[in-house]
Amino acid sequence: MSLKKITLDHHEVVCQQGETVLDALLRENIDIPYSCKQGACQSCMLRCLQGTPPVAAQNGLKDVLRQQNHFLACLCYPQQEMVISLSPHADFFTEATVIDKQRLNAETLLLTLHTKEALDYFAGQFVNLKRADGLMRSYSIANNRVHANTLTFHIRRLGGGRFSEWAHQELKIGDTLAVSNPQGLCYYLPNNKEQNMLLVGTGSGLAPLAGIVSEALHHGHHGTIHLFHGSREMDGLYWVEEMQQLARQYPNFHYTPCVSRGDAAVGVALGRANEVAMSILPNLKGWRIYLCGHPDMVNQTKRQVYLQGANLQDIYADAFHVASATLD
Ligand SMILES: Cc1cc2nc3c(=O)[nH]c(=O)nc-3n(C[C@H](O)[C@H](O)[C@H](O)COP(=O)(O)OP(=O)(O)OC[C@H]3O[C@@H](n4cnc5c(N)ncnc54)[C@H](O)[C@@H]3O)c2cc1C
Ligand code: FES
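Above: the input record for the complex with FE2/S2 (inorganic) cluster. Below: its predicted structure, written as tokens.
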């Protein structure tokens, strides 16, 4: 059996074969931040001071972080002994106060936070929200960059979900949370404003896409912008009026709400959002693509848009991984 010694400050941990650095540290009750355990939230980012992290453990990190030997503990099956430290990037948190809580639908909360320090983020990125006991989860920023200190989030309640149930039921206006550095590669940059854009999201995956649409329109993006938002049933949709209003205001913006089950109201397409999008837009050559929400939808649609002509470099995606259950 191949055992690898991992040193973090004064702790020495032996990583068993087939065990990640994160699992080895948690087994020894070493307190390090983590959330998704699937390489998506970047909250378990560490830095390798001696040794080299496996390439697979740097998946999704910015080039500068890779070069500085940062890696994700939950993806790291060490191939050699490593001396590691907590990453200063993972350590940054600013305090934020809840300034508003509203219902978007029965399952989705619109949460507004005011941060002590202004965050430098791109529309579409996500942050990790941490409560006082250290429980942390990733949520996408739903607004554009005009609001430097005000962040909005769409938090969907999962039955038995520790953070989302608590945010829905117990978190109050005036309470504080810690907010991490913005992260993620699914964001809008105001370049190539003539490029057509397709955005597909399911459930609370509308959050980053709404931020991106708002940012793009704010910057005068003049390529065609198509947003498809999907839910299983009608009551899972939200912001329909607001998006329709935006589509009336900006002729280059098109919005299609979709439901995959039951009866679809007038103006709502019947079918999965990604399938409806693919049938309406069969040729995606030259398009910029944004995908957010259920991991299966995101992965399936990545393949579909590529097969329908989109360039891999033009596909921006964040899958909303949760511990074990599904988001729709
Ligand atoms: C990049 C990214 C962006 C995201 N953005 C958003 C967003 O904008 N909006 C949003 O709503 N979500 C988003 N998510 C998902 C979010 O981070 C949380 O995962 C989600 O809110 C669930 O967290 P929770 O603590 O409520 O549930 P958890 O407590 O983590 O539980 C998740 C589910 O698993 C079940 N479960 C937990 N433990 C067990 C167990 N031992 N056995 C069986 N079942 C179990 C729970 O019942 C629950 O249904 C995002 C995720 C990522 C990675
Ligand atoms: S816990 Fe490692 S990336 Fe989320």
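Notes for the reader.
Confidence is low (pLDDT under 50) at residues 324-328.
The first helix runs from residue 21 to 27.
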